[in-house]
Amino acid sequence: MSIWTPPVITAIASSDYPADNTLFSTLTLPLDTASAENRWQLERLSGVLSIQSPEGLTQSVDFVGGKSRHRSREAGHGAAPLKKALGISTFEKRHARKPRIIDATGGWGQDAWLMALMECEVTLIEKNPIVHALLADALARAKLDGQCSDVARRISLHNDDACNLLAQLSADVIYLDPMYPHRARKKADSKKSMQILQSLLGPVDDILSRHLLEAAIKNGATRIVVKRPKGATVLEPMSTFSGQLIDIQSPNTRYDVYLKHTD
After folding, report:
1. Does residue 126 lie within any of the structural domains?
2. What are phi and psi of 108, to 5 degrees?
3. Which of the chain's termini has less CB crowding within 10 Å, N or C?
4. Domain end marker among 20, 35, 59
């Protein structure tokens, strides 16, 4: 089996967006002034920061339109299993406020956005600097949108190793969505976005996922939610978990909920 190496990414500079050059310098990316085939490229297309793979797949993060706009409508309907897994209604009845949530596996940020739509304050952690830059760009654009600005301001984004940061942060709920090997039967657009994400982050590593779960359990949060594909094995922490484990089912997804004590 070949050893994975991070892709070499070239940033495409544009005189129309001089602030991007500072970002590209921070990311220590080589600069170019023109796109080219057969290489990874980070550039701004129609005002949106985007990453393009050598195969021509383009990925950006958009919290204002498309799927995110649809998720705004489903926040009170199709997202019921996630809301139940997070324990939002129960927590609100008990504490007269929404739970504070840490999403420790940022990815493309769709679940974090949905949590913010549910009026929760969300701390979003993404270790990969390129994925973090795409998320930051999407949040900045969302804050300028009249219908999305309040939601975007509920999300605090961090570029850090979640295992380290979880030892410093406090929350009521910690949410984990560790990458899982892609299944071909998923929709093509989902396959493309996951393909790019796995290329940037590297192959699935259950040992790292178990360490992340262990860090979440050591945090002060009493509820940890792990998102898994339906039929997937339960993610085991590195040490024995003495709390309660329940699961919330949805058509294609299962939420494994680790409760340190009944909340």
Report:
1. yes
2. -90, 5
3. N
4. 59
166 occurs within a structural domain: yes
Residues 140 and 54 reside in one and the same domain: no
CA neighbor of 109 nearest in space, from 82, 83, 132, 76 = 132
User: pLDDT (tens digit, 9 = 90+) per residue, 116-130?
Assistant: 999 999 999 999 999
Q: d(Cα 239, Cα 236) in Å, to the nearest integer?
A: 8
Which pairing describes strands 244-249 and 173-176: parallel, antiparallel, or unpaired? unpaired
Tell whether 121 and 176 lie within a shared domain.
yes
Environment class of 16 (CB within 10 Å of its CB; exposed 0-12, middle 13-18, buried 19+): exposed
How many residues does the structure list for the chain? 263
| Euclidean distance between the first and the last CA atom of the chain, given in angstroms as a whole number | 45
Q: Considering the domain boundaries, does residue 162 fall inside one? A: yes
pLDDT tens for 249-260 read: 988 899 999 998
Question: What does DSSP say about strands 9-12 and 40-45: parallel, antiparallel, or unpaired?
Answer: parallel
**pTM score, two decimals?**
0.92
Domain encompassing residue 227: 66-259
DSSP state of 64: S
CB-based contact 35:50 (threshold 8 Å): no
Sheet with 58-59, strands from edge to edge, namely: 31-32, 9-12, 40-45, 48-52, 58-59
